[in-house]
Specification:
mainly alpha
């Protein structure tokens, strides 16, 4: 589907940490990546 999960997660976490928020943007994602 063209989605690089590793890059997706890294960007999400980098964005979250840059704002001092640990899970805000990640928890708000409509379709979080299935890491299972």
């Amino acid at each position: 589907n063209g989605l690089d999960v590793d890059e997706y997660v890294r960007r999400s976490y980098k964005f979250a940490y840059s704002d001092g928020i640990e899970v805000g943007p990640v928890a708000c994602l409509p379709e979080p990546p299935d890491l299972n």
